[in-house]
C-alpha cells in the first residue's frame, strides 16, 4: 500500500482517499434526502386537519438551546480534527468525547420536545403536518443517534489501536458526517421553526 | 391458527397454488442438488462471499434474466386476457396484481440489475482498475437487491401480491382500498433494493472519478463508462427521494399517519409528485447505460471511431440535468394550473434535442463505415428507427393540452414500451451477446441470435404498435376487459399474437445459451469481435486482478490504437497486486434485511426489532474488523498469465 | 506555533453564532414575510457554506472542484424539486 507523507494522515493511503471521496458522494445523496423531506414539509405545512399548527406548538427556548448545543458540538469536533492533524491524540479524544456528550444532550432535548408535542395533542397520527414535522425531525434525530453509536465505536478503536491511518480516516469521515448534521439542523431551525414562528 | 392466517393469499386461484408447488419443488431441487453434488462450500466460497466485480456482475445478470422471464409470464397473461373481449381468463383482482408486478419486476428487478450487471462487469475493465472503489459495499449492493427481489416475489404466494399499479398511487394504495399486505411488499421490497442501488451509485461514481488508468482523462473514457458515470450521478440524486417517499407510504400503511390519506390534511397527490421526482429520472437511469452500450457496439461493428464524442458526452450530461426537471409531465391532468403544465411541457420537449443529437451521432458513425451485421449490431440498427418512433410519440405526450386525450390510455402504454423495449431491452440483449464471450469464454450462436432478433422485432411491432390506435380510440390502460362493441377486438388479438412471437424469441435466447454451452468453440481468443476499448485488452476468462500490468491510455479508443496505431498499452512490469478479501457479511446482512422486511410487512414487531439490532451489529462488526486485504505475488501472477496465454 | 492554534475554527464558530443571532431577528422583530424569508435564506445558506468550507475542508484536496461541483449540483436539483413542487401544489393549483 502506497503511503504519501505529504498529505494528512487520514488521506495517506489510496483507500483512505477513496473513502473520503465516497463519503462526500454519500453526503450529496443525503442533501437530496433532506430536500425531499423539506419539499414534503413545505407542501403539508398548513394542512393541519383538526390538529395544532406550527405556531401553536413551537417554543423558542428549547429550539434555541438545541441549536446552540449542536453548533457547539460542530465546533468541538472541528477542534478534534484540528488536534488530530497536529498529532495530539489526547486533545483529539477529549474533543470527540465532548462532541458526543453534546450530541447526547441535543438528543435528550429533542426527545423532551417530542414528548411535549404529544402531550399537546400533536401525535404522529394527528395530521399531515404533525406527521411530516415528526418525520423530518425524527430523520435528523435518527442520524444523530446513529452518529452517537458510530462515534463511540471510533473512540473505542482510537483508544485501542491509537492514531493510525485507519482510525484517522474514520475520525475525519465521522467529522464530515457530524458537520453535515449541523448544516441540516441550520435549515430545520430556519425554515421549520423560525419560519413557523414568524 | 389465527397467527398463520395472515400469511394466506387473499385471492387464491389455481395458478397461485400451482406456483406454490412449483416454488417448493424448485427449492427442494436446488437444495438437494447442491447437497448431492457437494457444492455448498463452492457456492459459499466462490459466489456468496465474493467481492469480485466480475462475479457480482454475472450474478446480477443471472438474476435479471430470471426476473425477465417472471415479468414476461405476467405480460403474456395480460395479453392473453385482453386478446378477446369479455374474457374470463383472469378476474379484475388478478389482472390488477399482474400488471402491478409486471411493472415493478420489469423496471426494478429486471432492467436495473441488467444495467448493474454491465456496469459491474465492464467499468473497472474499461478504466483499467483492479476492482471497484468499495468491493465489499458492492457485494452488499448486490445482495440487498437480490433479497429485495426475493421478498417482492414471495408476495405471490405469501400474503398476496400488490395490486395498486407499479406507481402505487394513493389513496388507492392506502389501507382503505388496499387492505391486503401486498402494498406493504411493494413499499419494503423496493426500499431494500433501492438502498442497494444507492450504494452502487456511490461506488461507481467514486470508482470512475478516482481509479482511472494513467492517461485516461475524463474525455478519453469509453462511452459506456461515461454513460455509467452520468447514470450513477442521477441514481445518487433521485434514489433518496424514493427512499423518503417509500418511508412515508410505509408509515401511512403501518403506523396510521396521514401523509397521503384523504383525511386530516393528508395529500394523496404528494405521493404522485415524489414518486415521479424519482420515477422520471429512473427511466433515464435505464436508458443512458443502454445508449452507452449502443455507442460501443456501433463503433465496433462500423469499424470507426464514435462520431461526435464530445457532443455525446455533452448530451448525456444535459439529459441528466433535464431529467430531474420534467417529472410533472406524468400527471398533467392532476389539476395544477397552466403555468406549471407549460413549464414541464417545455422542459420535456427540450430533452428530445440532446437525444436527437445522439441518434444522429450513431448514424454518422455508421456512415461510410464497413458495417458487420452481427447480432449486437442488428439490435443496434433495429433500435434506431423504433426508438425514434417511441421518442416522437413521447413529444406528442409532452404537450400538456393534448395529453388530456392520451392520458391513461393504451397510447401511453404503447409509448413507453416503444422506448423501453427497443431502447433498454434490445441494448441489454445486444450487450449480452457482445460481452458474452468476455464473461464466459465462448460466443453465442449467431444464427439463433439473428432469429431471436427478427422474432423480437416483428413481435414487438405487432404487440405494441396496435396499442397506439386502440389508445387513441379510447381503450384505457389497466382495464381487465372490454366489450366487443368497443371495437378493440381485432387489434388486441394482433397484440396477443405479437406477444406470443416475442415469447418465442425470449425462449430462443435460453435455447441459444444451452446450444452454445454445448457446441460453441472455446478457442476464441481475448478479442473475438475486433473491438476497441480496454476490456478486450485482457485475457478471456478475465483473471481476478483484471490486468497484470496497469494499462496506460492515450486515446478514447485505447485498445484499437494499441492494435492499429502502435500505442503501448502496458509499459510497466508485473508488480504484486493488492486485492480485497472475500466476506460473508454482505450476504448475511442482506439476509437479515430480508427477515426485517418480512417482519415489517406482516407487522411482526418483535422479529423486526431483533433484525434491526442484528443489522446494526453487522455494521459494528465491519467497523471493528481489521481487514487489510491480501497481495497476489508476482510469481502467482506470472503463472496465471502464462496459463492464460497458453489457453488463447 | 501559529499552526497549532485553531484560529480558523474559532472564527467559524463565532460567525455561526452571529448568523444564528441574526436569524433570530425574524422572531423578535416584526418583519413582513418577504423580509423574514430573505433574512433566513441568507443566514442559512451563508452558515451552510461556512460549515462546508471552514469545518468540512471541502476545498483541501485535488478533488476540490468535483466535490464542490457535486454539492452544488445536488443543491440545484434540491431547489428545483422544492420549488417545482411548490409551483405545482401551492402557487399554481
Description:
Chain C: This is Quinol oxidase subunit 4. The complex is a heterotrimer of chains A (198), B (648) and C (93). Chain A has 198 residues and is mainly α. Chain A has helices at residues 14-44, 54-57, 60-85, 89-119, 128-161, 165-197. Chain B has helices spanning 2-5, 14-36, 40-48, 53-83, 92-126, 135-154, 182-210, 223-255, 268-302, 309-323, 338-366, 375-398, 400-406, 410-440, 446-472, 489-519, 558-564, 585-601, 605-624, 634-647, and strands spanning 577-579, 630-632. Chain B has two domains: 10-48; 49-535 and 543-583 and 627-647, Cytochrome c oxidase-like, subunit I domain (Cytochrome C Oxidase, Chain A). Chain B has 20 helices and two strands. The longest helix of chain B has 35 residues, at 92-126. Helices cover 68% and strands 1% of the residues of chain B. Chain B is mostly helical and 648 residues long. In chain C, α1 (7-23) runs antiparallel to α3. Chains in contact: A-B, A-C, B-C.
What is the structure about, briefly put?
Chain B: This is Quinol oxidase subunit 1. The complex is a heterotrimer of chains A (198), B (648) and C (93). With 198 residues, chain A is mainly α.
List keywords for this structure.
heterotrimer; A: mainly alpha; Four Helix Bundle (Hemerythrin (Met), subunit A); 6 helices; 80% helix; elongated; C: 93 residues; mainly alpha; 2 domains; 4 helices; transmembrane (chain A); cell membrane (chain A); Cyt_c/ubiquinol_Oxase_su3 (chain A); EC 1.10.3.- (chain A)
Give the overall average pLDDT of chain C.
88
Order of secondary-structure elements of chain A: HHHHHH
Mean pLDDT across residues of chain A: 92
| CATH-level-4 superfamily name of the domain at 76-198 in chain A | Cytochrome c oxidase, subunit III, four-helix bundle
The major pleated sheet of chain A works out as:
none
The number of domains of chain C: 2
**What is the succession of H and E elements of chain C?**
HHHH
Q: Spans of chain A with pLDDT under 50 lasting ≥5 residues?
A: none
Helix content of chain C: over 70%
Q: Assess the beta-strand content of chain C as a share of residues.
A: under 5%
- Termini separation of chain A comes to 56 Å
Total E-strand runs of chain A: 0
CATH fold node name of the domain at 76-198 in chain A? Four Helix Bundle (Hemerythrin (Met), subunit A)
* Number of β-strand runs of chain C: 0
Alpha-carbon Rg of chain C, integer = 17 Å
